[in-house]
Amino acid sequence: MTNNLIGIRGSFFDFTDDPWKFVGEEEKSARFFRDGLLVTENGMIRDFGPFQKVSPKYPSLDITHIKDRLILPGFIDGHVHVPQTRVIGSFGEQLLGWLQQWIFPEEMKYKDRAYAKEGAKQCFENLLAAGTTTFQAFTTSFAVSTEEFFEEAARRNMLVIGGLTGIDRFAPADYIDSADNFQRDSARLIKTYHRTGRNIYAITPRFALGASNELMTACQNLKKEFPDTWVHTHISENPSEVTLLKDLHQCDDYLAAYEKYDLVGKKFTGGHGIYLSNDEFRRIARADAAITFCPCSNLFLGSGLFRLGRATDPEHRIRLTFGTDVGAGNRYSMINVLDEAYKIGMCNNTVLDGSIDPRQFDEAEAERNKLSPYRAFYSLTLGGAHGLYVDDRIGNFEVGKEADFVVLDWKAGQRAIKWHESLLVSDAGPTTMDEAAQLLFAVMILGDDRNVDETWIMAERAYKKTPTEQTASLR
Ligand code: GUN
Ligand code: ZN
Question: How far is CA 270 from the centre of its chain?
């Protein structure tokens, strides 16, 4: 960190509100400064606005001028499995078979500290190269891998959320942990890492199907003892899982398995939520809890189509983050997540258009399924921060927040985007909010991590794309 005032000049795009609140006029939720200036001090945002207005206040400011790029708040990934880095995109199974065949054998290797450390490093580098500056992570059931995760985050000064990932059934004997061990190790890790530097700790039962009553009770005890911690898990991802779960925990629906142990409240996130009922959505909304939508994973594992328009229904609007779910998600890039999320929204509208049951057509829900560039990039930035209860610190360029941001090169990526760009903007780049939004739509549909030119953490550059390869340098 530096004590110097630093200025970043360029074209900025961020959000001040939720675009789903502004149907038909979503631009009211966003901000675009074609020639803007971000002033930071010790990594914090001190000033922000049009260059002509802000710059006279800082006559001797050291300014980095980033030209021909769009600067957005850093992307927030609500759901990543750090120890799945080496088995991303493994073949042939749906969730339960995939866990047994590919995932548990790999995660068992994270008992070894050196293996865990190298895996964490690779994962952070991939995420930084994708423009992700904050993520919520699963580790393994070994405390060493959780330690290496937080140590890696601290070295990079990144705001992360994570925790020891508890499982005491439905996995090989060498991998499961006892509820007592889990509670003891989690308590020690919370005391060591929670709110040290930028680290945030999440009590992390892997999923209710892998948790006995004893493990769930351990989580309940931890949350009672450390009420400031977050809670992170999976929910309602796959039909076989949902069916088995109801018998195991003797509950009417998936959410009830977590409610029974007082885990569903503020700072709770469940990954997926594909098969949630309207009643579960209502209870999640009332509890002010969150769901993470992981479209790449949901398609890769054939889990199902998340009901985006239902999750954003104002009658029970839930907090929502988007996530890669690497390694079931086959991309680290949140740009790819938007691409697949858009398609899932469109597929949901095929169902809603009456082709299945005309009586269920809901025009408003169909509209909410449309992932416009405003809704999309809000979900990766301010929306993601809101979902994870860190919007007081990150998510946009408000004064007082921490200066994490991503620099997008809309001309990079596949050839098609170059052709597209020429239709949309002049050589000087987008001049209006509408042009910038259209460009962002092209990036999310045609682009990928090649469009990420730089990633900055607390006003320091942590990643710069090189012409020949995409590597993130360890600072
Ligand atoms: N449910 C329990 N564990 C996992 C996991 O590792 N990935 C996904 N996608 N779902 C899970
Ligand atoms: Zn997951």
Answer: 12
Distance between Cα 151 and ligand 2 center (Å): 22
**Distance from residue 296's CA to the centre of ligand 1 (Å):** 13
* Domain limits, the chain: 5-73+398-473, 75-387
Predicted TM-score (pTM) of the model is: 0.97
Copy the structure tokens of residue 207: 């999923």
- Distance from Cα 99 to the centre of ligand 1, integer Å: 7
Instruction: Quickly name the fold that domain 75-387 has.
Output: TIM Barrel (3.20.20)
Strands (E), 318-451: 319-322, 405-408
Q: How does pLDDT run across 344-390, given as a tens digit for each residue? A: 999 998 877 777 677 778 899 999 999 999 999 999 999 999 999 99
Q: Which residues contact 243 (CB under 8 A, 6 or more apart)?
A: none
Atom of ligand 1 nearest to the CA of 241: 1
454 and 72 Cβ atoms separated by less than 8 Å: no
5-73+398-473 fold: Urease, subunit C; domain 1 (2.30.40)
Residue 62 CB-half CA count within 13 A: 8
